[in-house]
Specification:
With 128 residues, this protein is mainly alpha-helical. The protein has five helices and no strands.
Length: 128
């Protein structure tokens, strides 16, 4: 057994009113101008445009919020990088870095952490 589902939306109340007004105008029952006879169509179009504008405004607001979040993460990353470099400068001299393998290893680990944070940030940006 297969069930075939079909759906039709119909013409709606604005379409019915338009047809009724056009028939009444052509028969001579009403003496309205064509602007008023076709008014239900204009109302339908106007409502559609209003809904689309509201959707666009909400979408734009969401994009701005996501962009602000991304900018905040970028600022956090830059501040973290500066803090790491400053801490490293305070703790070790150039000679320490050149000669001491443990200091080199710590510096390398610091750079790896920075790279991982940057990779996460880039993935977040790609989500936009």
């Amino acid at each position: 057994m297969s069930s075939n589902k079909s759906s039709s939306s119909g013409i709606g109340i604005c379409g019915v009113l338009t047809i009724v007004f056009v028939v009444l105008k052509l028969v001579g029952v009403i003496n309205w101008s064509w602007l008023w006879v076709l008014c239900p169509l204009w109302i339908d179009i106007l409502l559609t445009v209003i809904v689309l504008v509201i959707i666009a405004i909400i979408d734009n607001k969401n994009k701005k919020e996501n962009m602000e979040e991304w900018e905040n993460k970028m600022v956090d990353l830059i501040m973290y990088q500066r803090d790491c470099v400053d801490a490293f400068r305070m703790e070790f001299s150039k000679e320490d870095i050149k000669c001491n393998s443990e200091v080199k290893r710590n510096l390398l680990n610091l750079l790896i952490v920075k790279e991982e944070k940057l990779t996460k940030l880039i993935k977040c940006e790609e989500a936009f």
